[in-house]
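Re: folding output
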Amino acid sequence: MKKYLKELEIAGMILIVIGIFIAHTAGYNYGVWPCGVGMLLLLIPVLYKAFHWSEYAQENQRNIWVIILCIILIYIQVLILKI
C-alpha cells in the first residue's frame, strides 16, 4: 500500500481537474462524478497517513493546513455566492 500512495494522490488530482473541466464545458451534473471519485482517491492516502502518524507527521500537519484552507475558501465562496 505504501508504494501506491503517490499514484493515488496523482490520480485523484487528475480526476478532480478533469471533473472541473467537464463541469465548466458540459455541465455540473457530468463533472461532479469525476470530482467525487478524485476526492475519494485523495482520501485514501490521507487516511493511511493519519493512521501511521509517526511515519508521516510532517505531511499530516501540511494536510491539516491544506484542509483548513480549503474549508475557509469554500466558506468564503458560499458567503459571496449566497448559494
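--- second protein (sequence, then structure) ---
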Amino acid sequence: MAKLIFYRQERYDNGIRTGLELDGYPIAERFEEGDGQRDPALIWYVDLRCEGPRVPSEPELAEPWLLEHSPLFRDGFLRFGERLRAGADKDIYSLTWGDFPDAPEGVGVTLSCSAVRRVDGREMSSILREIGTHWEEIIQSLEVPEGAVDSR
C-alpha cells in the first residue's frame, strides 16, 4: 500500500520548500530561497497525505495522479482554509482534516498543518487557500531532486 505525501513549508529565513515523497523517499521538490540569514527551522507546514492500494506506487505516476485528481485536492485545500478562516487555537499537535468524501475508493486522504506561533496560525487559512487555488501550477513546478531515482 503506497503512501504519497505532498508538503509545503516555510522556514524562518522565508525559504519555501515544496515537494512529494513516496513511501518515505523524495521524488520531486522545489525550493524558493528566502531573504534572510539561512535558518532551516520551520515556521509552518502543510501536508497532504494520500494512502491506500489505489495510490500510485511508482514515482513517475505520482504527478499525473495528483493532477488527475486536482478537483478533489483543490476543493479540500479551499474548504479546510475556509474552516480555519478565523484561525485556530494554539495546540501542541498539528491540525488534521480528512473531509474528502469524493476520494477514490481505496484511498485515504488527510490534510495536516501546523504553525509555530499563533500569528502564523491565523495565516494558515490563506496559505491553504493559496495552495488550493494554484494546485496545478505548484505540482507542475516540482522537479526530481538529484539522487532521488537512485534512492528507491
